[in-house]
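>> received
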Amino acid sequence: MNHLVKLPLLASRAFSSSARQLKNKVPESQKIFQADNGLPVHIKGGTGDVLLYRATMTLTIAGTCYSLYWLFIASFPQKKE
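>> returned
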């Protein structure tokens, strides 16, 4: 029963705003993404963004080709002998 009495105190500590203050990184990110350096916005984030973009495009194109292949196969039924 003792742990039920301490529950409101623990809950208020868990959601307290004095625990840790985080630095606002939004202005730094805005400077990077709004810079006029000729790069598209999906590449301005660096190497990780480039790799993520290329992986996404590769999977999208491969999935489209795979779907079209099976659509082509399904459109010509096998002859029964």
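>> The first helix runs from residue 2 to 14.
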